[in-house]
Design a protein that fits this description.
Layout lengths: L4 E4 L3 E4 L5 E3 L2 H11 L13 E7 L5 E6 L11 E7 L8 E7 L4 E6 L4 E4 L6 E4 L13 E8 L4 E8 L5 E4 L6 E5 L8 E5 L2
Antiparallel strand pairs: 1-2, 1-11, 2-3, 4-7, 4-15, 5-6, 7-8, 8-11, 9-10, 11-12, 13-14
C-alpha cells in the first residue's frame, strides 16, 4: 500500500509520514498520478501551458506583479514579484510555460509577457523580457515539485530555481518573494489554481 502523503518529482517520491525513501521508475509515477489524482483537469499540470494563480499555503496570499510608478515602457527594469494579494486579478495571473517535460521544468510568464527571474546572488525575484522562448535561461526556469495528499486527493506545489537550486519562499516581512531556501517548509508550499 502507498502512504497517504507523497512528496516527489519525476525521479523519486518520499513518504511524508515515514522516513523511508523510494526510487521509482518515472513511468510508474506518471501512470499512478494520471490514474489516481492528476486525471482531474482542475489540478495544475506543469507539462501543459496553463494560466494559473499561485497562492502561498502559509499566508493565504497570491503571488502578484508589482510595478513601480517610474518603471520604463517595457515594465522590465523596476518590475518585481511579491506575495501580497488577497484577491485575484490580472496582476496575479501567470502562464506556466513548459520548458522540459521530463524534468517538470517551467517558466512563469506574467500577464504582460515578462518572465519571473531569479537573481543567483541573493534569490531576489524580478522579471525579464524575451522575444523567443528558446532564449529563456536557468534564471527564469523552475523545477516544479508536486506534494500529493492521496487521501484528500489534493496537490500542493513548490518551485525550485534552476539557477541557484533554492526554493521559492513567501516571506511575511514586506510580502517578499525570494528563492533562498535549501529545504521546503510551509513558506515554500503553494496552492496553484487554474484560471480560465
Amino acid at each position: 500500500l502507498l502512504p497517504n502523503k507523497l512528496t516527489f518529482n519525476t525521479m523519486s517520491y518520499k513518504a511524508t509520514n515515514d522516513s523511508s525513501y523510494f526510487n521509482v521508475n518515472n513511468f510508474s509515477v506518471d501512470d499512478y498520478l494520471s490514474q489516481k489524482i492528476l486525471a482531474n483537469k482542475n489540478i495544475y499540470n506543469p507539462n501543459e501551458s496553463t494560466k494559473i494563480s499561485i497562492k502561498s499555503k502559509k499566508w493565504g496570499k497570491y503571488i502578484n506583479l508589482e510595478v513601480s510608478d517610474d518603471a520604463d515602457e517595457r515594465k522590465e527594469a523596476k518590475t518585481t514579484c511579491i506575495c501580497s494579494s488577497k484577491i485575484k486579478s490580472q496582476a496575479e495571473t501567470f502562464t506556466s510555460v513548459p520548458m522540459d517535460q521530463d524534468l517538470l521544468w517551467v517558466a512563469l510568464m506574467t500577464s504582460n509577457g515578462l518572465y519571473l527571474s531569479v537573481d543567483p546572488k541573493d534569490g531576489t525575484i524580478t522579471t525579464k523580457s524575451y522575444d523567443k522562448q528558446e532564449d529563456i535561461t536557468a534564471n527564469e526556469t523552475f523545477d516544479v515539485i508536486r506534494h500529493i495528499d492521496c487521501k484528500a486527493k489534493t496537490v500542493e506545489f513548490s518551485f525550485k530555481s534552476c539557477v541557484n537550486d533554492k526554493y521559492l519562499s513567501a516571506k511575511w516581512m514586506e510580502n517578499k518573494l525570494i528563492a533562498d531556501k535549501n529545504k521546503c517548509d510551509k513558506r515554500e508550499m503553494f496552492i496553484v489554481e487554474i484560471e480560465k
